Amino acid sequence: MSVLSFRCVAAAACVALGVAILKAAAGPAEVAQIKPRQDKFRDIGGALKAINDELKKGRIDWDNTVVPNAQTIKDRSAYLLNWFPKGSGPEAGVKTYALPSIWQKNEDFVKLGKAAQDEAAKLNQVALSKNGNALKTEVDAMGKACKACHDSYRSGDYEKEDED
Ligand code: HEC
Q1: What is the pLDDT of residues 127-148, one digit of tens each?
Q2: How many domains does the chain have?
Q3: The pLDDT value given to residue 95
Q4: Ligand 1: distance of its center to the CA of 132 in Å?
Q5: Gene3D superfamilies per the record (predicted)?
Q6: Which protein residue has the closest C-alpha to ligand 1 atom 21?
Q7: CA distances, 162 to each of 8, 24, 159 (Å)
Q8: Does the beta carbon of 51 lie inside 6 Å of ligand 1?
Q9: 44 CA → ligand 1 middle, Å
Q10: C-beta of residue 19 within 8 angstroms of C-beta of residue 31
């Protein structure tokens, strides 16, 4: 079975199972956050990857690739902490990799979110400065800030089920 169809089957099963739980545990407004939040994270992930790919090439295209993608990361991550209302975790009954610890250790989660926002702002500045060495350093720092949160608050199943 392909990775994609596995995810679809799992999601369908979760939706069916979740309908009853959903009414009791989480309101539709919280549940409705999950899909758009995953889409926005994918945007951020794609943008960071595009910058990384640019570094691997010999010649960095600042204007068409690095600057706009750094802007996307900064703009999107500015709202990241709003995407996790209580009730939008696994109890929502739809497929999500968000772990319950987000709400149990929320102070720490918020701290990591803010740290990532700081790195995104720095990345944006470095993009505008068009300094290749600084870009390499900052892309690494940005990646570490993302990973720090994923290590604690995103289910390890994501890595098993998804390639990127
Ligand atoms: C404060 C915590 C936090 C930070 C910081 C963070 N993420 Fe995430 N990310 C999550 C959580 C939690 C999920 C799972 C969301 C879900 O499944 O509902 C996630 C999911 C994702 C996904 C998978 C989306 C999907 O379902 O296909 C990608 C890609 C991603 N993040 C990229 C990034 C990148 C790139 C950064 C840094 C620029 C970043 N994230 C920063 C917590 C974070």
Answers
A1: 999 999 999 999 999 999 999 9
A2: 1
A3: 95
A4: 26
A5: Cytochrome c/b562 (1.20.120.10)
A6: 41
A7: 12, 30, 5
A8: no
A9: 8
A10: no
Residues forming beta bridges with residue 125, ordered by sequence position: none
Tokens linked to 96: 């999500």
Q: How many CB atoms lie within 10 A of CB 46?
A: 13
Q: Please choose from 4, 31, 150 the residue to mutate so as to test ligand 1's pocket, defined by most ligand atoms within 8 A of CB.
A: 150
Q: How many CB atoms lie within 10 A of CB 93?
A: 21
CA-CA distances (angstroms) from residue 88 to 12, 30, 98?
17, 5, 8
Residue with the bigger pLDDT between 157 and 16: it is 157
For the cut 70, the answer to whether the pLDDT of residue 24 exceeds it is no
Q: What is the pLDDT of residue 58?
A: 77
Q: Which domain holds residue 127?
A: 3-161
- Can you give the three-state secondary structure of 28-47, one letter per residue? HHHHCCHHHHHHHHHHHHHH
pTM, 2 dp: 0.86
Q: Which residues contact 103 (CB under 8 A, 6 or more apart)?
A: 84, 86, 89
What CATH number did the domain enclosing 132 receive?
Answer: 1.20.120.10
Contacts of 83 (CB under 8 A, 6+ apart): 33, 36, 37, 40
Q: Which residue, 154, 162, 115, 132, is CA-closest to 51?
A: 132
Summarize pLDDT for 35-55 with one digit per residue, the tens: 999 999 999 999 999 999 999
Q: Residue whose CA is closest, atom 36 of ligand 1?
A: 146
